[in-house]
Amino acid sequence: MSRKRIWVAVTARPSYSRIRSAMAALRARDDVELGVLCSGSALLDRYGRVVDLIRADGFAVVDELYTFVEGDDLVNMALTTAATISHTAAALRRGKPDIVVTVADRYETMGTAVAASYLGIPLIHVQGGEITGNIDEKVRHAITKLADLHLVSTEIAGRRVRRMGERPDAVHVTGCPSVDLARESTLVSADDLQATLDALGAGSHVDIAGDFVVVMQHPETDTHDDSFRQMTEVLHAAERLPMPTILFWPNVDAGSDGTSKAIRIWREQGGGARMRFIKNLEGRQFLALLQRARCLIGNSSVGIRESAYLGVPVVNIGDRQIGRERGENVTDVICDRDAIHAATEAQIAHGGYARSTLYGDGHAGDRIASLVANATPDTQKRFHDA
Question: Model-level pTM?
Fold first, then answer.
């Protein structure tokens, strides 16, 4: 019997972490030929070339598509999406996969979804049906309407997808595969993690056996021209804490240049004496680091998803994650240094939270692999009136 050819599209650093466990489960099956299609920032050196990590983990990369259009303006996100459509369509035509899997809500994923749809290749979307701020909201729901099978993280997300006219039998609640990575991260050695941190990045040494906080602040696309000020507020708040900070550089959304500029100027002017600056860290190691932190500060979805499972206190800044389901571990604040500092001190005083399975129990990858491997999606979509 011929094996089903399944391609997973990875376009950025977070995409790989969110789908890796499902990819591992798919690779282990005898009835699947798994390939990874890499594009966007997954190929950029300054974000750690995720494609190299994918290969190091033993996955077969079927193609590298250089689609990222440099620049800090909103138009570059549109141009990157257009380039992703063009290059992905050509790659799909050459490779002829039976199914394409796309993940979450980044703008590059729209390019994957459009290309697969117009080539008549069944499209499976992971993590649809959620609500957030920024352009991600539009992208996620647009991909839902292009996709033929929906593997969602929560019951509420599943209800939203069905309300958008998708057939109930095409919607499956699997949990979030990034939580699988959080479960696996508990096995990471503290000594190995410390050695990796010491070898990466720049700035002061941070002893992970002691107290520290983690900062991960991305630009908000709706207010991308304010990203410099927003990052500056976050830096001032972190500097006032009585413990060191491990700070991660932002993703590639519009406004990232402003965020990065704020960090560089902060360092040039003598700030960050107790900070370590990291570009990229392998997913399980990052989550192992997060589990040891007293608090996560910023606006990354990791504060909403994986941190709920790990019970990590989170100070979530601004509107990037607005509307997303969250656990008791999250405190929401405006982007103001005093508000951020006060909320962080309160979270540190509170300490760890009980583990939440809001986004899954850590075994989503196996469920997703089974559904994908056995899927026969109908690409002739019709609106389903409930």
Answer: 0.90
